[in-house]
Specification:
two-stranded antiparallel sheet, 3-stranded antiparallel β-sheet
């Protein structure tokens, strides 16, 4: 039996939540590993690219068309 880290919630012999540890026979959960639901415990997480810093695209507040005293 091997230990696996749960990456997505699923129901097996019980309900598993993300982050839980599950112990199972490799042949029984091979389809879940392939689908990205489980990962072998201790396996490093794949590193993705860093997200680019968001550009500040805030626009100034629009001026009211109705000036003071109108209405």
């Amino acid at each position: 039996m091997m230990k696996y880290e749960v990456l997505r919630r699923h129901i097996g012999d019980k309900q598993y939540e993300q982050g839980d540890e599950r112990e199972a026979v490799a042949a029984d959960v091979a389809h879940l590993v392939k689908a990205g639901v489980l990962r072998e415990a201790g396996e490093k997480k794949p590193r993705g690219k860093a997200e680019p810093a968001p550009k500040n695209k805030a626009e100034p507040a629009p001026a009211n068309k109705a000036g003071p005293g109108r209405g």
